[in-house]
């Protein structure tokens, strides 16, 4: 009983510590609001028109930034559907086998009816021992959350959450609006920052708030700009941070562009088809997070192809979703049969595009610790 209690206390302490970076950001933002609204706009700016314009623009950006940040923090990461979990009989059968190859044969049999294309570098089934499930494509186990996360990008300590399929759009908007927030403060505070050094401001406490506000906003702008540009590049290439570090492995081999469908389709896979929802922190990404359209350069000739009917994973997608995402077949078909105006990748002429939801490849999957 004691060891169990100790583990509970340890987990509780860890959960508290994980919120410290979020609390730090919240305090910085609260101080910036006080410094900008009260000390700069109300106390230091004398022109009424300028004051009103600055306050209106600031609050629009502030609300969008806070909304996106909230959504990124409190949107739960999505986990694989039940179809990817081992049944009780399969677990027992797997435990009785001592040899790795025998276990692989069992996992291959289970995987043949699932829309799975990727595997490990060694060609093994992508299987999670802790969650006891076959990993869908682009799914990884997070050691912090201790769960398998769909289309996992990374675990971000600044939001105390995993960034994945369910909240990647929110994370991108959080980066965009936080960068815009810092740039706006830097640009509007610059004139009064100069006055600070030329003694053009009254000798009040507002002087020091204006000084540190400019320094903080400009420094955050540099770091946020580099991070935002990097993730924009990832969206354009349809890669996660993990896939940029280690390219996904398909049956035909490693392919860093295996999920790329061209810039426009890659962008719409994250932000959705309807432009009016792109700048708003509401879920609009396409698909179910368990399977994705692929561009397979060297398609395996042994890979079986089935009619256009949905796989079991697709049938259960709507039941396990906490978001009103579009049906998998509908969204993927639109990604692959769009108008010619969409930008394709440079090697599009040599790429055969296939929809994983319409085939049962029986691909092998990796076994990660």
TrEMBL record:
Main location per the UniProt record: membrane
GO cellular component terms, A-Z: membrane
Enzyme class: transferase
Ranges for domain Palmitoyltransferase DHHC: 125-245
Bias kind Polar residues: ranges: 303-313, 333-346
A GO molecular-function annotation: protein-cysteine S-palmitoyltransferase activity
Keyword Transmembrane: yes
Region Disordered: start-end pairs: 301-369
Catalytic reaction list: L-cysteinyl-[protein] + hexadecanoyl-CoA = S-hexadecanoyl-L-cysteinyl-[protein] + CoA
Annotated keywords: Acyltransferase, Membrane, Transferase, Transmembrane, Transmembrane helix
Transmembrane segments: 16-36, 52-70, 170-188, 208-230
This enzyme's EC code(s): 2.3.1.225
Lipid bilayer topology: Multi-pass membrane protein
Compartments reported by the entry: Membrane
Record-stated family: Belongs to the DHHC palmitoyltransferase family.
Domain comment in the entry: The DHHC domain is required for palmitoyltransferase activity.
Name under which the protein is recorded: Palmitoyltransferase
Source organism: Channa striata (Snakehead murrel)
């Amino acid at each position: 009983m004691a060891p169990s209690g100790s583990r509970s206390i340890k987990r509780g302490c860890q959960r508290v510590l994980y919120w410290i970076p979020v609390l730090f950001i919240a305090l910085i933002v609260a101080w910036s609001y006080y410094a900008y609204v009260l000390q700069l706009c109300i106390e230091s700016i004398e022109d009424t028109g300028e004051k009103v314009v600055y306050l209106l623009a600031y609050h629009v950006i502030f609300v969008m930034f806070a909304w996106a940040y909230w959504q990124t923090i409190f949107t739960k990461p999505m986990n694989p559907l039940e179809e990817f979990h081992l049944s009780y009989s399969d677990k027992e059968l797997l435990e009785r086998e001592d040899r790795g190859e025998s276990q692989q044969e069992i996992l291959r049999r289970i995987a043949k009816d699932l829309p799975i294309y990727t595997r490990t570098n060694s060609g093994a089934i992508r299987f999670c021992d802790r969650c006891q499930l076959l990993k869908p494509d682009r799914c990884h186990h997070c050691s912090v959350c201790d769960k398998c996360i769909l289309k996992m990008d990374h675990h971000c300590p600044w939001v105390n959450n995993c960034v994945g399929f369910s909240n990647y759009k929110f994370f991108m908007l959080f980066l965009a609006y936080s960068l815009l927030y810092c740039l706006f403060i830097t640009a509007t505070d610059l004139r009064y920052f100069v006055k600070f050094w030329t003694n053009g401001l009254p000798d009040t406490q507002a002087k020091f708030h204006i000084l540190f506000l400019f320094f903080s906003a400009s420094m955050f702008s540099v770091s946020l700009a580099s991070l935002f540009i990097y993730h924009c590049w990832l969206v354009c290439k349809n890669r996660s941070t993990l896939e940029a570090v280690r390219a996904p492995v398909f049956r035909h081999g490693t392919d860093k562009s295996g999920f790329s469908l061209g810039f426009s389709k890659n962008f719409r896979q994250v932000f959705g088809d309807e432009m009016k929802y792109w700048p708003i922190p509401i879920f609009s990404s396409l698909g179910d997070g368990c399977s994705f359209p692929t561009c397979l350069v060297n398609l395996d000739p042994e890979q079986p192809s089935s009619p256009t009917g949905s796989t079991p994973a697709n049938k259960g997608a709507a039941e396990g979703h906490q978001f009103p995402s579009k049906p998998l077949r509908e969204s993927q078909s639109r990604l692959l049969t769009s108008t010619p105006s969409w930008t394709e990748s440079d090697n599009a002429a040599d790429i055969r595009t296939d929809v994983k939801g319409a085939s049962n490849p029986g691909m092998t999957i990796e076994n990660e610790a």
